[in-house]
Amino acid sequence: MEKLQTILKNTTKKDVFIFILLFVLLFSSTALFSQHQIGHTTITFQDANRNNRSIETEIYYPAATAGTNVAMTSGQYPVIVFGHGFVMAWSAYENLWTEFVPRGYIMVFPRTEGNILGTDHQKFGWDLQFLVHQMQLEGATVSSIFHNGVAPKTALMGHSMGGGAAFLAADSLVQSNTTYFNTLIGLAPAESTSNGVSSINSAKTVTVPSLILSGAQDGVTPPVDHHIPMYDSLASACKTIITIIGGGHCYFANANFNCDFGEGTSSTGISITRTQQHQVTFDFVNPWLDYTLKGDCDAFVEFNDSLQNSSRINHNQSCTPNPVPTIMDNNNVLTSSTIGVSYQWYLDGNPIPNSNVVSITATAPGNYEVEVFYTDGCSEISAPFVLLITNIVTNMKKEMVNIYPNPTSSILNIEFSDSKIYVAIIVDFHGKELLKKRIEKGKLDISALPSGMYVLQLQSEKLVYTTKVVKR
Question: Which domains does the chain carry?
Answer without folding.
Answer: 35-319 (3.40.50.1820), 327-387 (no CATH), 394-471 (2.60.40.3080)
